[in-house]
Amino acid sequence: MRSLTKYILLLLTAVLYFPADAQQVVRYDLYVRDTMVNFSGKPKNGISVNGGIPMPTLTFTEGDTAEVHVHNKMKAGTSLHWHGVFLPNKEDGVPFLTQMPIKTDEPFVYRFPIKQNGTYWYHSHSGMQEQIGMYGAIIFNKKKGDPTFRKGIDDIPSIPLVLSEWTDLDPDNVHRMLHNANDWFAIKKNAVQSYAEAIQAGHFKTKVTNEWKRMLAMDVSDVYYNKFLINGGSEKVYPDFKAGDKVRLRVINAGASSYFWLTYAGGKITVVANDGNDVEPVEVDRLIVGVSETYDVVVTIPEDGFSYEFMATPEDRTGNSSIYLGNGIKQLVTPLPTLKYFEGMKMMNDMMKMNGDLDDMGMKMTLQKMDMNTVMYPEMEDQQKEAHEGHQMQENHKGHDMQEKQDNSATHEGHDMNSHQGSGNIKTLNYGMLKSTIPTSLPKDAPVRNLHFELTGNMNRYVWSLDNKVLDESDKILIKKGEVLRITMYNNSMMRHPMHLHGHDFRVINGQGEYAPLKNVLDIMPMETDTIEFESNADGDWFFHCHILYHMMAGMGRVFSTENQPANPYLPNERMGYPMLQKESNMAHFMIQNDFATNGNDGELMAHNARYSLTTEWRLGYNKMHGYEVETHLGRYIGKMQWFMPFVGFDYRYRKMENHESEKNLFGQANSKDERALFSAGFAYTLPMLVRFQAEVYHDGTLRLGLMREDIPLTKRLRGGFMVNTDKEYMLDLRYILTKNFGVRGHYDSDMGYGIGLSVNY
Amino acid sequence: MKKLTIYIFISVLGIGALQAQIKNQETITASIKGNCGMCKKTIEKAGNEKNISAVNWDADSQTASISFDKTKTSKEAILKKIAQVGYDNESFRAPDDVYAKLHECCLYDRDHETAVAKEDHAGHIAKNDHAAHSSHQMNNSKETSLNSVYGHYLGLKDALVASNANTAASHAKELSKAIQQVDMGKLEKSEHDAWMKVYKSLEKDASAIAAEKSIDKQRINFINLSNNLYSLAKVAKADKPLYWQFCPMANNNKGAFWLSSEQEIKNPYFGSKMLTCGSVKEKI
């Protein structure tokens, strides 16, 4: 039936073809394949579509019907989500929510009418496929005669720029490492912020305060990437531009977790559209593009003979990627200098209360207007210095001393101009500056429903949630068609979150009144409160989630579901629907480590998800006196910060003591058995300085209290740790990290003595 | 046995040395601008990468011989790094601000003055403020000379925003003069009372800032100065609206206020370090 309809439609378009604004079906065929790619010098697994990364740019005109045939030649199932596009819910491309995954060689067609114009993009919504190649641009051109057509913007050459990043690691492994608080990425990024580095930078106190408040080193992003890409490459030159030419760059941030700064060597950047929607042009020096946002910007080629660099720099500034516009010598833009992490740490310390809540000190932060991260930007300090020098130079020019005596007011003005010119603040875009070109008010008579979300998270265990509940712990939120949803969000976590709503644009309440800008992604910085509103106008289940891939996969999202919606033909089996989506975002993560040392083996195996943790620790000696010991704990983390974890456990120990001597603990409880198997119950609590306090009582009545701290960052690669307990056992260790999986560890253990060995972790 | 160890040691060293060489080597020459020995150091440091590239720059010929592993990098990539530290070359032109920051002896002659279309970025901002400032001068003839006090205060505030201690000091000097010149006879009763309460400490803080060279100490005095001026402004309104603004992080997280003629936050306690920190508490 479907193909028949298609056939008829095709026939119709063939017959009724008009060159201007006829309704056209525009067909694309996408062949999705597992492939080997080489971005960093090493061949790695990626996914190519029609032979390349990124996916091809799909171009339509408003009024067309899109028909995209997916040919899945991969082993895994896949899906395509049309980011920011208004479409029937079943075409939205979220596996287990709006369709089943497209299986290998299963024919699948996405088909929807194009009701918008602007810059959009599409990507896989299955697992981590977006990270390894499944992203591409969609351009919806305006119809001929569109009243919103803007001269000098809609009629100039345009280049889609798809920004992304590449990691040589398997993204599932990246996700696992994040949950295990593995600091390998920080080492690669030079962002460990160890004690030695803190002392060197004169920030010892800052570091201590930071750990006192139970924070791990702060960073603006979590993942280390080997390469940053524009349209799948870098350094591309577009030579066909002359002095005075204007170019529209359709910038799409298709990165899985990186925000990108945009800077241009040829002067100002004019922002003309955001998330596909036109905005009144606004001139800035630079702007940051949140994960999954799109910005259309216009730049000018100032002079012939030069090719001007347009640079995208990830927020953590570990690399960059550029294109060049114009023909000639390449005029570079100043690269953004590396971040001053300890300044950021100091700022975070000030903002963090002891209970882990953030305290905005009554500043009512909103709409990216007050970027606290600027404390980490060295270029801001430079500006300050320049302002000073520039000022003095100009003063001398004018010989202002004399003038001052003659005429106070004149110099006064002179001063003022100078200081302004000098400080010439780098003008950075924020959401307050965006103003829609058309009124966007919602129907006045529609019922309004207010919703509040607190964006919550926990860096130490990499749990990201809304109102401290992950998707797995939340039902769908039922909404009514026709009602206006006004959503207020407060970010009480330490990271920024680009919140994305499927299938709708929302208005950002930013003080522009009825010209509030329309967006489908809103970046919310730590401590910010933002309000958005939209009219529920399409049936179905619409995902609302943080677009940082690893945050979404950790459970940071909700589903809005319209009441009494028609059944979705692509989802015949209800149990394979929402519960699967929930499960996918709360998978167990494994970690194993073992130290092969001269005095025995120390190791640990852990499986954990958002709330539960199952760990087994072992100490295996090489002789009977050392014996062996295995402790297993199953615990549940309580509270937003997850500092408290009650658990039940089982201990098994075997050893052969000489002369049957007995051991007494601090409480005088003796234990003499060579072999013991005990059940236990207890709790662990993370104290300030990240010291873990553990209390455990065994079924024979013995009690054990312990204090422990692992992974104290002494230098960039050296970690220290200690353990002491009421069984009069203690341990000290030092570990030097060689690679992602290997280290050298030396330790002293009260039972087993000195040992040195190779520490292996996965 | 000992000899064997030494032999092994030496051969390991030998292998090490071999490995330290650049593999898949390609050597090219490229023209790079520069002046002196210091330039040579900077250029080579930017272009060198262990086992991957080696740059040897010659000041007389303004060229460099560059050897590199062609599987790992390219001539373009190396020349870009060199231009990013300030040295124009055959493929890339350094950013103007990076060039301007080079040491004096390294400021080589450039072929081309500037490649960026000059725009007067700050022009209109300066003009706006300019207008605001001169307006109080004109109104001077009217009954109140307090506007001159506000005007110089705002000038001082702007200097602190720009983190310029010298300008701040000269504005503070003007402010102190303006305070002394206020004609109390022209003030209304309520204004007069408010003025009497604060003028001594206003004068004291203004002269303290004028005498101070350290921006940090100027900012400390500015807290009290702002508070006093605020209590005055509440009673004796300025001819233009003033905004009472607050940054909770200033003054070692105790927070501090200031007055501004514009609603937009420009923080005098941190300058560009945290320019936008703060919020408007009141419009006067």
From TrEMBL, chain A:
What Pfam families does the entry give?
Cu-oxidase, Cu-oxidase_2, Cu-oxidase_3
- What CDD domains does this protein's entry cite? CuRO_2_CopA, CuRO_3_CopA
Sorted alphabetically, which keywords does the UniProt record give? Answer: Copper, Metal-binding, Oxidoreductase, Signal
Under which name does UniProt file this protein?
A: Multicopper oxidase domain-containing protein
First and last residue of the signal peptide: 1-22
InterPro entries to which the protein is assigned, alphabetical: Cu-oxidase-like_N, Cu-oxidase_2nd, Cu-oxidase_C, Cu-oxidase_fam, Cu_oxidase_CS, Cu_oxidase_Cu_BS, Cupredoxin, CuRO_2_CopA
Q: Does the keyword Signal apply?
A: yes
Top-rank taxon, per record: Bacteria
Q: Where is the Plastocyanin-like domain?
A: 33-144, 224-313, 450-565
Compositional bias, Basic and acidic residues, is annotated for 383-418
Name the segments for region: Disordered.
Answer: 383-424
TrEMBL record, chain B:
Gene3D superfamilies, A to Z: 3.30.70.100
**A Pfam family recorded for this sequence:** DUF3347
Stretches assigned to the DUF3347 domain: 149-238
InterPro entries in alphabetical order: DUF3347, HMA_dom_sf
Q: Where is the signal peptide?
A: 1-20
Q: Which UniProt keywords apply?
A: Signal
Name this polypeptide is given: DUF3347 domain-containing protein
What species does this protein belong to?
Sphingobacterium tenebrionis
Q: What is the lineage of its organism?
A: Bacteria, Pseudomonadati, Bacteroidota, Sphingobacteriia, Sphingobacteriales
